[in-house]
Amino acid sequence: MSSTADPAFDDPFIVHRGLLFTVAYEILGTAADAEDVLQESWLRWTGVDQSTVREPRAYLVRIVTRQSLNHLRAVSRRREDYVGPWLPEPLMTSPDVADDVVLAESVSLAMLTVLETLTPVERAVFVLREVFDVPFDEIADAVDKTSAAVRQIAHRARDHVAARRPRMEVDASEHDRVVRRFVAALDSGDMQALMDVLAPDVVSVTDSGGLVRGAARVPLVGAERVVAFLRGSIAKLDVDYRVQPIVANGRLAARIEVGGALMAVVSFTVADGRISRVFSTANPQKLEALGTEHPLVR
Q1: What count of other Cβ atoms lies within 10 Å of the Cβ of residue 123?
Q2: Taking the chain, what is the end-to-end CA distance rounded to the nearest angstrom?
Q3: What is the pLDDT of residues 221-280, one digit of tens each?
Q4: How would you list the strands of the sheet with 198-207, edge to edge?
Q5: Are 263 and 191 a contacting pair, CB within 8 Å?
Q6: pTM
Q7: Other Cβ atoms within 10 Å of 173 Cβ, number
Q8: Partners of 293 in the beta sheet?
Q9: Is residue 61 classed exposed, middle or buried when 0-12, 13-18 and 19+ CB atoms within 10 A define those classes?
Q10: C-alpha separations of 232 from 143, 227, 236 in Å
Q11: Residue 153 in contact with residue 226, Cβ under 8 Å?
Q12: What is the distance between the alpha carbons of residues 68 and 142, in angstroms, rounded to a whole number?
């Protein structure tokens, strides 16, 4: 019996969906917003005479970029009114994302947080050029600028990010080793082991959206202050808690459960054998994407 392949699987949008999601996520910083953009982009794609599109991949990236910029501008006020620090939404990713060093760094919570300090157009230009190596003329079409203007924007954005990006010189194995030390120490309640794995000047940022009682609403600076806060938080618990490793945004992270319920996902920057940055996402609305593994590709 013969079978006919489903033509939907040959649709360029389906073929490149992983790439399109990654572009949208890196520009927007949340999976929910990225999925909204993909839905809007799909509707636009289905309304196009696709036989006239010579390069579907470039065309789709352009649509997704434009929709992402529109979406980013629309949600900017919402983020300005956000209670406490705003962090990008963590994603559960496959371990092989770490094999692509450029992709792994670009989707790390540390880098995505830096990208939040760019203007929407600067962010789109930086992501398309530095992560996906899109030609300047194609970026110009996507952001409605001239190629000359895009080159200037790219240079400005690159300098801006370089001045603020975290040091990422450690390889995945070193990162994992240090994070596993943190996970074991916090899971067992060993405060001295926590002190030992944190850099003296560590900075810890928690995003709760004002929805989690007792969550820090300002960054904590210094290992002693971070450990003191964790010690106090644990002492207030009247149920068991667990800390387990999880792969999020291409790197090993920590999953914290309290009373069997997911309470936070914690990502890290590692430098010189210790944790220098801690990014804790506790806003329950930002933890919804953790139930699905997202394929990130470039």
Answers
A1: 24
A2: 38
A3: 999 999 999 999 988 888 899 999 999 999 999 999 999 999 999 999 999 999 999 999
A4: 220-221, 198-207, 274-281, 261-271, 251-258, 241-248
A5: no
A6: 0.91
A7: 10
A8: 92
A9: buried
A10: 48, 9, 7
A11: no
A12: 10
